[in-house]
Amino acid sequence: MQGFDVTAILLNAQLAGMLVDGFLVTLIIATGSWLLAMSLGILLLVIRLLPSRIASHGVRAYVSYHSNVPTLVQLILWYFGIFSLMPTTLQEWLSEHHAEATFAIIGLGLCQAAYFSEDLRSGLRSIAPGQEEAARALGHGYVGTMRYVMLPQAFRNALPALVNHTVSLFKNSTLAMAIGVAELTHAVKEVENQSFRTFETFLIATLVYLACSLVLMGIGAWLSHRARPVGAR
Amino acid sequence: MLAEIYHIVRDDWLLLLIGQYPNGPLGGIAATLLLSVLGISLAFPLGVLVALARISPWLILRAPATALVYTMRGVPLLMIIFWGYFLVPLLIGKIVPGFVTMVCALVVYEAAFLSEIVRAGIQALPTGQADAARALGHSHFSAMRYVILPQALYNMMPSLLSQFVSTIKETTLGYVINVPELTFAANQINNRLLTKPFEVFFLLAVIYFVVCWSLTLLANWLERNIAAKRAGKGRTHEAISNGTPLAAEP
With a cut of 0.85, is the ipTM above it? Predict the structure, then answer.
């Protein structure tokens, strides 16, 4: 048994390089799927606000599927299932262009969009109805009411939930390793296999994940501090 | 496509249900549910203790509990599972099956999340409850035991059930360390059939959906029932409805 020595990994250019590469892939997956999830989440919210019952049932079905099927199963279904149903030319093109990372971003993004749209919706629902009526009475149209009165408050109300789900999206990016994406956890397994320094490798990765999550939580706390209503303490 | 899914169910329903048991380890839905039940029921007492430590007036209890909760909230479950894979054999001195590793990882992870639910439940009770208990001569612990916890635990039943659903979803990660559970069974079927990945994994998604969705409906029903009961109480005892809901921590 070798003694505890973190520098054996951090100062080894090859091993440290593998971890840095893995971390960059994690960042790409997390950022890509966050952007997809947030835009799709807003779109789902808008569809749900339409006066059509079919549209609102469709969004509800979307949300229940994505929140009741494990994220890992969704990723596996995308990468092994839906991928195999695609036309051969598209399959070949994707295989040459990081198919596993693409499907990880799509799978994680679509899954988290369900949570984001629910967060935003409950943020919107918790606004007092008088707000909308007052905005309309002041001469705002529907869009103006949404843009200047409702949505800013909805975002503020939804902020804690959005931050929590952003952190869990970041944590869920580890699931991409199950479909072969070379992200941080994947790199950790490789480094561990090469260096036999299990404890040190896991410790470094755990601290990196923890630091990122704490930074995200910190940004969330700062945003909700900034977004608090005027006069509130 | 539906015909093919029907064929998979007809040929492999036993594998999906209980895995290779009794000729091998328990697997399939049975193992998934057993993992989740063991995980959440072992984590629950731990979660209550952590929650009590987090709201206790003594820093020496509060600090480590807070650190544990933030660590578990910030580190992916898969990392915790790898730690378990590496640490548990080291601690008890022998190799353990993946099932045990998975239960250990789930217990530690879920205890942190359950403790947040318990803490929210306790803090959502009006402070008058604790004050009244103290005024009646209860100590801090006795007030918790006889006055605060019974009410808080009742109110948070829906959240506990939702956390159980999350646990079921998290057991899928066992697939990564080859724990025989439902996802593992589906993967076995897929490896044997080779040509029908969509059908196999679609079926897998449907099974998880049915299990989790029915539990989610139950949780929603409980939530409405409990909310109605509390609202009913509020009309006679004004104080109870004054509990401010706890804002989720960022």
Answer: yes
